[in-house]
Description:
Elements: H1 8-34, H2 39-49, H3 59-66, H4 70-82, E1 86-90, E2 98-102, H5 104-148
Antiparallel strand pairs: 1-2
Helix pairs in contact: 1-5, 2-5, 3-4
Amino acid sequence: xxxAGPDASVFHxxxxxxxxxxxxxxxxxQAAHAAGLQPQQHQLLLAIAGAPRGASPSIAYAxxxxxxxxxxxxELADRCEHERLLTRVQDAQDxxxxxxxxxxxxxxxxxxxxxxxxxxxxxxxxxxxxxxxxVLAGREQHAAAxxxx
Length: 149
């Protein structure tokens, strides 16, 4: 990479990394659709299930984790609740706070999707990791070259 900006090898490495991520996301989106969900519904279930131990995920938590506006997260939770994937419950510590909880049906769907995602990562993971390593190695080389000048 030159002082003027990235060179062709950086573009190549970034493009390959982006391609590998996108191919994983395509498989993820297809799996969600095959399970009868929109990809964001799957992401919401995963965010709730993946919340830190002891945490009670709320709409605000879901919005932050999914990069959504609060009202969009509300609509998404409404759709998931309508499809019996999750339910709203009052927070045990703060009765004013509403938390999201995955239903038995939602857990069954999420378990199946998670198995499919882990299988895909067994296949795609090494390529994704290699592409990321090339991007990071290029950044390290650039930093070392910049310190030398």
